[in-house]
Amino acid sequence: MSVYFLSDAHLGSLATADRLGQERRLVSFLDSIKEEAEEVYLLGDMFDFWNEYRYVVPKGFTRFLGKLSELTDRGIKVHYFTGNHDIWTYGYLEEECGVILHREPLLTTIGGKTFYLAHGDGLGDPDRKFKFLRAVFHNRFCQRLLNFAHPWWGMQLGLRWARHSRLKRDNGKEPPYMGEDKEYLVKYSKELLQHQPDIDFCIYGHRHIELDLMLTQKARMVILGDWLWQFTYAVFDGDNLRLDSYEEL
User: Fold this and answer.
1) Chain centroid to CA 141: how far?
2) Given strand 100-102, what is the order of strands in its sheet?
3) Contact 162/85 with Cβ under 8 angstroms?
4) End-to-end C-alpha distance for the chain, whole angstroms
5) What is the pTM of this model?
6) Nearest residue to 29 via CA among 7, 52, 54
7) Residue 206's CB: how many other CB atoms inside 10 A?
8) Strand (E) or helix (H) holding 70
9) How far apart are CA 212 and CA 221, in angstroms?
10) What is the pLDDT of residues 113-158, one digit of tens each?
C-alpha cells in the first residue's frame, strides 16, 4: 500500500513566474507514483482559482487534468478536497476526471489507522473577515451570481483577487510556524482529539508550511507544505507516514 497526500499547487496563479513549468513538475510527480499508488488525496487549492460554467471549464491545466484522468482510469482512487480557492466545482472533475470530491473534512480509515483529512481553511481561525469571505464564497446565490458573468471576466476576477491576496504577504509566502499556542490548526486539532481520541493522523493543507507534530502519544498532525515552492507530500505505506519532497531527475 502507498497512499499519497499533497495540497496547495495553486495552478494558474498570476503570482507564479513559470506556471507551465510548475504544472509539468506536478504532473511528473503524479506520473512517478502511478505504479505504486493505491490512493491519492489532494487536500485543496490545487488551482489558484477554479470555476466551472455550464458548458465551459477554465482554460489550461490540460496536463494536470489529463493525468488525474489517467490515474483514475488505472483504478487509483483520487480524492479531491475543495479549498478556499477552488470551491466552484459543479461536476466536471468527478464526471470527466473521475475524482472523488470532498467539500467537508473527512474522517476515514486507511490501513487500520484513523485519519482526519481537511484542507484546513476556517478550522479554528478566528479572523472575522476571512469567515465572512468564506461564507460569501460558499453561498449558492453568490456562486450563481458569479456564473452570470462571461467566463473570461469571471476567471480574471478570481485570478486577480488571488494574486492580490498572495502578494500582500511577505515574498508572497505564508507566515512561518507560529508555535503550538498560536497555530490555529494545532489548537483545532487538540480540541478535536478531545472528542475523537481514536484519531491517529490529522493531515491538512492551507498553511503552506511543512509541519510534523505529535499532539499525543498516539495522534500525529501533519501540514503538507505546498507545490509552489516546497514540492512536498506525505506518503503512508500501511504502517508509517513520512513527509518527503519531490526532486525531478
Assistant:
1) 24
2) 100-102, 77-81, 39-42, 3-6, 232-236, 241-245
3) yes
4) 24
5) 0.88
6) 7
7) 26
8) helix 62-73
9) 6
10) 999 999 999 898 777 776 766 676 667 766 676 666 767 666 777 6
